Amino acid sequence: MTILGIESSCDETAASVVVDGKTLVTNVVATSMDLHAVYGGVVPEIAARSHVESIIPVIDEAVKPVGWDSIDAIAVTYGAGLGGSLLIGVMSARTLAVTKNKPLYAINHVEAHVYANFLTETGGIEKPEQKSPQSPITNPQAATREWQLGDQTYTLPSTQPQFPLLALIVSGGHSQLVLFRDHFDYTLLGQTRDDAIGEAFDKVAKVIGLPYPGGPSIANAAKLGDPQKYQFPKANVQGASPALSELRFKIEDSRLKKQDLDPQSPTSSPQSFKHGYDYSFSGPKTAVLRLAQEIIGEDYTFPSFKLANRLSETQKNDIAASFQRIAIETVVDKTVKAYEEFSPKTVVIAGGVAANQELRRQLSDRIPTGIEYTDPKLCTDNGAMVATLGCFKAMRGSETADPYSLQIEPNLSM
Ligand code: KG4
Ligand code: ZN
Q1: Within 6 Å (CB) of ligand 1, which residues are found?
Q2: Atom nearest to 202 CA in ligand 1
Q3: pLDDT at residue 142 in the model
Q4: How are beta strands 145-149 and 152-156 bridged, if at all?
Q5: Which of 109, 135, 241, 270 lies 20 to 30 Å from 31 when distance is taken between CA atoms?
Q6: Residue 358 CA: which ligand 1 atom is closest?
Q7: Is the pLDDT of residue 107 over 60?
């Protein structure tokens, strides 16, 4: 099953060809990030205009090595994302589905992020003897492999994730912890109550005067800073979502049934029903602003856009390191708790913030199973994740979308 995936939900115009949900054949990404950097964030109109300019060359480049005849179907992100940006990808995919006579699959962007982890090889060559020494961002327990594809190298997991699968999805627009029982069968365990983690990185970077996108800038500054210098608060969010309570009742029920047969079988304590997996980043984000005002000797009325000039490089690096530590700890704490409660076979991380090395380090330290992290290039937005999910939809006979009527859904949730 050979699928062309098209992605245009934010500021990346991307297209990729993936075979059988595991082989990356082409991966083309054009980003308008530089155009947004001067504004400190994505400007929707600029993003949409640059999708218009890039989408045809990007799709052409992705399809050229295989040819249209080998493409079995097209998959496209139809939500969540920026309306103007989504429209360009969806209208292109609809047109191509009609003119090239290919089935069309509508893809949820957040769900697709998880599927980047299913890619285990490329159409290029496997690089020999790459199993050790490990780079600092890979887990020594896990045997990732390195592949060459064109002029790019990809570090990919050696095996596909197995179910039940616990996925931590951390991007600029989403922060969610999801338990997959199988493909397309999942429960949202928890999510942010306010800012997504990537959004918090971007906003903190702006306050301390680091360039957009804030995630990589904070990660770089943090390497030079002291992560223990400042103690920012970690939000303690109470309560659990109704979907989570229902899942727990189901699990509890099946454990109780099992216990009738086997007196040694464990049951979870009713105490655990109180716990949820939601979290929040607005508190630590505001704490950074207040601290920055305080260390330059100003009060809370001092405008945030003037702060950066008054902070020293050391202060910026220490703030970046201390904020990164607490933000990453917040999501890792929840992931570890979910790992202990639900005993998944595989844990994966997905979304732009999954490229963060501190996240990979903390998770590997605290989760005993070897996590095979995928290449950071496949964590930020790309067409390969869309094509991979498209492959599983096609291989499992999921419903296709109508190329004459598929609409965008900017607020699509999981
Ligand atoms: O998944 P993505 O490319 O787009 C969305 O779907 O949102 O994620 C972009 C987000 C941005 O907020 C960016 O700052 C963050 O991912 N990001 C990082 C890193 N690389 C990108 N955050 C922390 N550390 C990184 N290395
Ligand atoms: Zn994304």
Answers
A1: 10, 171-173, 198-199, 201-202, 213-216, 219, 351-353, 355-356, 380-381
A2: 14
A3: 64
A4: antiparallel
A5: 135
A6: 24
A7: yes
Ligand number with the minimum distance to the CA of 355? 1
Measured over the CA atoms of residue 332, residue 242, residue 175 and residue 5, the dihedral's sign is: positive
pLDDT category at 34 given cuts 50, 70, 90 is: confident
Are the CB atoms for 5 and 73 separated by under 8 Å?
Answer: no
Rounded to a whole number of angstroms, the CA Rg of the chain reads 22
How far, in Å, is the centroid of ligand 2 from the Cα of 381? 5
Tokens representing residue 326 in the block? 């607490």
CB neighbours of residue 70 within 10 Å: 13
Count of beta carbons in the 10 Å neighbourhood of residue 243: 13
**What value does the mean pLDDT of the chain take?**
90
Q: How far is the CA of 313 from the centre of ligand 2 (A)?
A: 31
Please state, in angstroms and rounded to a whole number, the distance separating the CA atoms of residues 305 and 157. 42
**DSSP label at residue 348:** E
**What mean pLDDT comes out for the span 14-39?**
92
Atom 3 of ligand 1: nearest residue by CA position: 380
Mark out the alpha helices in 16-157 (DSSP H runs): 33-37, 44-63, 83-99, 109-115
- What lies within 8 Å, CB to CB, of 165 at 6+ separation is 114, 179, 180, 344, 345, 346, 347, 348
Atom of ligand 1 nearest to the CA of 381: 3
At residue 141, does pLDDT exceed 80?
A: no
Query: What is the position in ligand 1's atom list of the atom closest to the CA of 198?
Result: 12
pLDDT at 136: 47
Among 99, 120, 101, 111, CA closest to 19: 120
**The pTM is what?**
0.90
The average pLDDT across 57-65 equals 97
Sheet holding 185-191, edge to edge: 185-191, 175-182, 165-170, 346-350
Identify which of 293, 359, 349, 289 has the alpha carbon closest to the alpha carbon of residue 324: 359
